[in-house]
């Protein structure tokens, strides 16, 4: 059964309708979303539109800036909505009659709240429905929020909810390992809790409580300790620095 019906006018709403279909189908399953171009089987009559709108739990009415005053292609000078046979109007009428949740979906930032006085009486009620808005530059995030709201409002959608891609846990981050064994003053391996590591053309500097084993440029050099700075490199004899007398844990320095 199609739980969500996408109601749109080809001019002005087609592109966003396809975005809605892709996002909501990925979340609730392709059979849960009705989009005319995708969902009407070959040989079916157009009455399938009103039948499906009547049976759906949600109707998304895509509204762009020209939606109210969209011209009737068959009757120049007349609005499409004024024609009782207009498909957009008929689909909304069926959804209202069945008690479906109607969500006006405003496309862009310039669409103003619907005025019931400018709508045919049979669908004027949708002006009182809480609308939502999607931006052309934020469609993915806006449609994810729309999906969250629909799950809360329509119990039938909750069992179908697969979540959004951002709900899936990402890969675990590996422990940091830095290698550069083939340059003067390069880094061998840094393990443990890494503090600050600085190197130049002559030798490395490592602070922290991990162990450092350097590569072939400084042969046999290994640095161990907690809170120790060690500088080694091309200088004569190297330099080793500690912090002076260490204070036993639990006591205070004198």
Mind explaining what this structure looks like?
By secondary structure, the chain is an alpha/beta fold. The protein folds into 2 domains: 4-166, Rossmann fold; 189-236, no CATH class. Helix content is 23%, strand content 18%. It contains 5 helices and 12 strands. It has helices at residues 10-28, 36-39, 48-55, 87-98, 139-153, and strands at residues 4-7, 33-34, 58-63, 101-107, 132-134, 189-190, 194-199, 204-208, 212-213, 222-223, 229-231, 239-241. The strands form 3 sheets. It has a 5-stranded parallel sheet, with helices on both faces. Strand 9 and strand 10 form a beta hairpin. The longest helix has 19 residues, at 10-28. It starts with a strand and ends in a 13-residue tail after the last strand. The model is unreliable at 167-202, 216-221, 228-232 and 235-254 (pLDDT under 50).
